[in-house]
What we know:
Low-confidence stretches: 86-90
CATH class: Mainly Alpha
Strand order of the largest sheet: 1-2
Radius of gyration: 12 Å
Mean pLDDT: 86
Amino acid sequence: MFRMGYHPKAFLTLKKNIRPGLTSRTRILSLLENRTASAKTIARETGLRYAAVLHHLRLLEAEVILIRKGNKPYSWELTGTGQLRLTDSI
Length: 90
């Protein structure tokens, strides 16, 4: 159904996975694999709108792929679950 090239953790179990969402979440997760970042930084570096970044961050947090740290503005980082790459085991 979907082409390979999406981050394995971009697929959600609680929501419908559509291509624009998968693409956005892949961009966000790829950035967060290297370091923690605020939503504003993520939006600036990925080229996504701030509201879209917040939406996807909250979806990924509900799936326990990301956690937010600190006080506002929050820093987002991958959880242990989010750091596992499924492509390594295929």
